[in-house]
Amino acid sequence: MVASPKAPLLDQKGGPLPELPFAVTLNRAAGAALHVQLAEQVRAAVLAGGLPAGARLPGSRTLARQLGVTRGVVADAYAALVADGTLAASVGRGTEVPAGAAQREGRQPPRRTGAPAWFRPPTPAPVDVPPGGEGLHFQVGVATTATLDVLAWRQAWAHAARQPVSGQYADPQGESGLRAALAAWVGRSRGLAAGAADVLVTAGSLQALNLIVSALLPPGSSVLMENPGYRAARQVLLDAGHTVHPLPVDEDGAVVTPDTPPARLVYVTPSHQFPLGVRLSLPRRLALLEWAERHDALIIEDDYDGEFRYGAPPLPPLASLDRAGRVLYLGTLSKALTPALRSGFVLSSPALMPALVRARLLLDGGQPRPVQHALEWLLSRGEVDRHVRRTRRWHAQVRAALTAELSGLAPQAWLGGIEAGLHLCLHLGPGLDALILERQLAAKGVYVSALASHSFQGPAPQALLLGYAGLTAAQARAGGQAIAQVLRATAPRPGP
């Protein structure tokens, strides 16, 4: 439906325009309602000066007849434009463009490209973007769905779809059935005793960290964090206005001594230190708990991939050793199922839980109920446990193929962090530069990442991070061969 673009701007007698002085196109197949389409086009004409101040629009019957629509379409469009001030309506004069609504002659309509003078664009978020293009991507932080039981997955979502649709908001702490299922799962998989009241359902670990930071920490707090460590978590702390101090890491995990400075909070990854892959030894775990008690501090235990161990006996989670309620245990289903679900949880002491729930309520109100219903179905029927067992066997084969190609590189390079998790660390000997190797491998279609980006103080260790969860055993073997070939060609020749 198109109006003539050649109508005179003003009626000869000063009355309303016989028709609009610009083309109007209405599409019944479009997603927007007809009155919304008409209102948008009239508004654009006013802003662009096509309808100057004082211009009186055609009557609703007249315009409706010209456009081939019902009078209600035009009346609703006019009403919306009067409501936002684009048009004015008065008895005896009809509908017209008020003074100040039209742009000055020749001026372009406004574009949403500006920002306040005080706004400072942030630096890019320190996260790895999904890889593009072909090649072998040793991406850290992904999970495989090759072992997913598609039938069980569909049954879970069918179960969620059958649940009654509520007109109420969800519980911001999480539905009680899902919280109970998560508590039981943590008890089975990690030996950590918990009940439904101890669980807060979150949209992943980063949201959990944001909730803790906003709900529990005083402004401008000092925080200790492993160095090298999870750079996205560090950025969350910095963006919240806290000061982050490095906590050194060695072969036994985070180094905690009597000289470790006081802080409000410490963030650690004890089960599989990110990114070095070492495990926090039991003496260090006890020392960290003692440090927190001495300095009245909280501990975040991020157990981001603790389900995946390969022959190494599990160490007790920090939270299971905690008697004072200082450990906040972060769990996630991103590795156990898929990051696409954006689901995780926090285990907290009763004293801290109300503040976390309040923060979640004010942030977004809680997890969508259908997602919670599907997850509860998968957890309560043991489908997550079975999936983890299948996936652990899959990853063990991929890990074995990769380590077989890289285990004979010493002393030029050696592997670390291979006992658990979904990535390993290839440490480089003297004379090798991780950034140079990263570029050389990318030229061959093999994509790895240097460890340096995860260090924030002191010299960066020379090492490559190799995430293998998104690869098959054959792909891992081919990638390992390419890495070994480039490394041997680049390594300095031994002296005579």
Global mean pLDDT: 88
- Which ranges are low-confidence, i.e. pLDDT below 50, for 5 or more consecutive residues? 3-13
Helix content: 25-40%
Radius of gyration: 30 Å
Overall shape: it is: elongated
Q: What is the name of the CATH topology of the largest domain?
A: Aspartate Aminotransferase, domain 2
The largest sheet, given as strand count, sense and whether it forms a barrel, is: 8 strands, mixed
Written overview of the protein:
With 496 residues, the protein is of the alpha/beta class. It has 3 domains: 1-111, Winged helix-like DNA-binding domain superfamily/Winged helix DNA-binding domain (Arc Repressor Mutant, subunit A), CATH 1.10.10.10; 136-141 and 386-490, Aspartate Aminotransferase, domain 1; 150-381, Aspartate Aminotransferase, domain 2 (3-Layer(aba) Sandwich), CATH 3.40.640.10. The protein is built from 14 helices and 16 strands. Helix 8 links the parallel strand 8 and strand 9 (298-302). The termini are far apart. Mean pLDDT is 88; it is low at 3-13. Pfam families: Aminotran_1_2 (PF00155), GntR (PF00392). Residues 98-123 are annotated as: Disordered.
What does the secondary structure layout of this molecule look like, with pairings?
Layout: H1 34-48, H2 60-67, H3 71-83, E1 88-90, E2 94-96, E3 136-137, H4 150-162, H5 176-190, E4 199-202, H6 205-216, E5 222-227, H7 231-239, E6 243-250, E7 253-254, E8 265-268, H8 282-295, E9 298-302, H9 318-321, E10 327-332, E11 344-347, H10 353-363, H11 369-380, H12 383-406, E12 413-416, E13 423-428, H13 434-443, E14 446-447, E15 449-450, E16 463-467, H14 473-490
Parallel strand pairs: 3-14, 5-6, 5-8, 8-9, 9-10
Antiparallel strand pairs: 1-2, 4-11, 6-7, 10-11, 12-13, 13-16, 15-16
Helix pairs in contact: 1-3, 2-3, 4-11, 5-11, 6-7, 6-10, 12-14
